[in-house]
Amino acid sequence: MTISKLARSIAESPTMRLNEQARRLRERGEAVIHLGIGEPKNKAPIQAILTSAAKLSGGDVKYTPTDGSPSLKKAIIRYTEEHYDKLVGPENVIVSTGAKQSIYNLLLTLVDPQDEVIILAPYWVSYPEMVKLVYGVPVIVTPEDGTFHPRLPEIEAALSSYTKAIIVNSPNNPSGVVFSDSFIAELVELCERRGIYLIMDDIYHQLVFDGARAAPAYRFTKVDLESSKVLVVNGVSKLYGMTGFRLGWVVGPRKLVEVMTNLQGQITSNPSAISQAAAEGALTGGQGVVESLRLTIQNNRDVMMRELKGLPDLHTVCPQGTFYCLPDFRAYKGKSLELADLLLEKALVVTVPGAEFGAEGHLRLSFAGTVKDVKEGVERIKWALDPSAPTEIYIGDRKLVRDWL
Ligand code: PMP
Which of 39, 173, 242, 356 for a ligand 1 pocket mutation test, highest count of atoms within 8 Å of Cβ? Predict the structure, then answer.
């Protein structure tokens, strides 16, 4: 079998691998707790269900325009006006099969072979692989001070004549950190001065806690949309917990959207008409669902932070958004892959190794599941790692005794 060099250079998505491992263990009847989970547990909003069901039961499920149905684009335009205070036209919006495809299409549109894309660590696992998929070079910038908050001088030092774009994700997967308004303002200024595209992955932008706010980058641009370097990516996956519908979008200058549409037309065409109907329903229906999801997740975050205090040597930056935190486990074990394997094998807890996000020594823990999962999951981690924890624990109906510390 011959496999292309490019395909061979792409790593398997570790989250998908862990999900699969957890699924197999569960199938065997093991009491697995999944703290690697990347989606909320809620049901899709009723309005999304009704509009997609109506589309389906009408039986008229056909291609839509490649860049999305006009009525969904109208709903996205309203969303952009409401949340970004920015009036855009239908020619500034392209809808894709999840924000994942949106970002991939953007990179395909912007990046020539060997061009560099700045990625801020800790980063979403897919960014570097996506850059490689378009023959670009990911350039990772890591904040030196352990805060998970990037700083402008470090980014400026990483720029070269090959830099085409910077990808920013705030609130951040995996750290939960929300980047400051002043940082986003400086970044917009830098990108517009240097002619570098700023890809704002805003997929978690409404999932913020304690009154935090994800700064809308458009607020800081001094030029009109058509000349702006700011590109905003969003979608219904995290906002409404509609991950399975696979629906995301990009807002940007008309010329770029035109090229992205051209490319998408040759790759997947339009996203599923049923998912587009669902997204339209979610965006135009009652928005109370977003707030109730936010409150549930914020409560889970509080529980997670309280429980983690039980591990005395753990250092955790308290997340102000998303449903993840990224505790520093180096006091217990430096190699995050080994640690995640140990926790899965001994304690049946799924975590995601920080090494995958450019944060070795850390584990990403998700609080998107139930409060019970969060509490029990952390209790098991404590049992597995902390010598001061009781040596015995019940996992499912089995009593386990720790004999490795
Ligand atoms: N960006 C980030 C930071 C994410 O965490 C995810 C989903 N895990 C995505 C984009 C992709 O979202 P979608 O489901 O819309 O493809």
Answer: 173
List the one residue out of 153, 168, 166 whose CA is nearest residue 195.
166
Q: Are 276 and 270 in contact (CB under 8 A)?
A: yes
Token duo for residue 399: 């009593």
DSSP letter assigned to residue 144: T
Tokens of 335: 């190699």
In terms of pTM, does the model score above 0.90? yes
Q: Taking CB atoms and a 6 Å cutoff, what residues make up the pocket around ligand 1?
A: 38, 98-100, 124, 169, 173, 201, 203, 235, 237, 243, 248
Q: What is the pLDDT of residues 234-262, one digit of tens each?
A: 999 999 999 999 999 999 999 999 999 99
Residue 299, Cβ neighbours under 10 Å: how many?
14
**Which residues are 364's β-sheet partners?**
352
Distance 98 CA to ligand 1 centre (A): 7
Residue 233 C-alpha to ligand 1 middle, in angstroms?
A: 10
At 401, list the tokens.
């005794």
